[in-house]
Amino acid sequence: MQGLYKYLEGSSSTLEIDIYTKASMVAMSHSVEKVVKEYGLFADIYVLFQDYKYFLYERERYLEFDQLCRQVFIFAENIPKDASRDFENTTFVELEAASPLLEEWAVTVIHPDYSAVLATKEIPGLQRINKENYRTFEGFLSLDSEIAADSAAYYQKLLAQKEINYLDRDWQPAELKNQKPEFQKLISLFINDSLFELEDKLRSLEEKEMRLDEMVKDNKELSRETMQKLCEAGEFRDEDSLFHILRIGFTSALMYRELGADKKSIENIFFASLLHDLGKIGIPDSILQKPGKLNAEEYEVMQNHPEIGAKILAGSHSEVLNMAYNIAYSHHEKWDGSGYPQGLKGEEIPVEARIVALADVFDALSSKRVYKDAFSREKCVEIVSSERNQHFQGEILDILLKHLDEVYAFRRDLKVFSEGKTTREISDYFFSVDFSIFEFLKMREMINS
Ligand code: C2E
Ligand code: SIN
Ligand code: SIN
Ligand code: FE
């Protein structure tokens, strides 16, 4: 059985098909029914509701129609067993999951002096923040009594198929007269009033939504900018240190993804990990840039950097900065408890810090430093593997080793990407609101699979 809208559209050539927004649909369906109430008409009403939840918004109104009308039919999906409680003249008809009527929104009112059919089919829609208000429908509103009779016949056939009993009619479609002119006038008056009111409401809603969109975007821009400034203050005076933190960010995001973190957390660890060495701000360059090995005293000073970073990042309301705090504070802790500054052990160390600890060390090993040359991939693997369950949690180590190709591929991509660009340009790219670590992770995933 085809849908009501298609059935009626096929049976009459005089229908004016239009596109309606949800607001117009509410206005028109309410107006069509309001005539019944205004004149106390002993009418039949058939309504297609898609899902029963939509009917619930209207239940109070339909309790009135139930008393007023000869009979009311509510067609919907997900009708609960006790739906008809409190109703006397209303029949609830459950639609099957595959029914074409589930895509339609329709109201038919039929009475010897008045009839109206609003029949529409939903246009699968624009996805916006507030989707409900942007639903659109294709269809028509007709006050033609023959269309109403066709519509009633359609529903009766459906009821017969489903073997649903309903009251015997005490008047027949043949008795239908032409529309009384005052009904026609009234209905357009109602529609205008109600549309005006609804479009007004919709406008203010739309404005609110736009403001919210902007605020979210502003906020994101602001927080990315803040992180960029912090990173610039702490780390990347030069391209190498920018590359270092970006690789750590990428590697950490990748590991966190493999540990099953949700999207928000993955994005957070990418940005939060970039700040892991923020505390190096407070370490003299004479130590940071020393070409050779640090002596015990210098190394002691160096070991203050996690606490300095943590002090700067403490007490934030932002989720990502709180994560950055944990990472800055604990990225030199070791799984076996022999790290600094607090000597935390095992799961006492926040998981983000356990991840970044490994990403940081692996990147330090595989890169040139003022105090050391870059080690080969094999050598790096050998060093970190020897630290299983000592410096690094075994489970996290395994994830890194499994995805090492991806980590090295990112290294190469980053180099290629950065050719001919200034440090500022590269930094602006990764901290722009449009940058998405998921695009990066996804791209790599597709390349590797
Ligand atoms: P970083 O250079 O980013 O190194 C981070 C971590 O990677 C180090 O933390 C260490 O755990 C590991 N790592 C780096 N190079 C090696 C290596 O050759 N062998 C092994 N097994 N592990 C390595 P750590 O030791 O707490 O050092 C923190 C920071 O202190 C380093 O960050 C670096 O900025 C500075 N630093 C450490 N040792 C020296 C040094 O001998 N000379 C200078 N100039 N700076 C050093
Ligand atoms: C509503 O959106 O208020 C009901 C319309 C429908 O049946 O989808
Ligand atoms: C970089 O230039 O730091 C990234 C490339 C690499 O070290 O292999
Ligand atoms: Fe560090």
UniProtKB/TrEMBL annotation:
Keyword flag Ribonucleoprotein: no
Q: Which residues form a coiled coil?
A: 195-225
Alphabetically sorted, this entry's keywords are: Coiled coil
Record's keyword annotation contains Coiled coil: yes
Name this protein carries in UniProt: Putative two-component system response regulator
Domain HD-GYP span(s) in chain numbering: 219-416
Q: Which Gene3D superfamilies match?
A: Hypothetical protein af1432
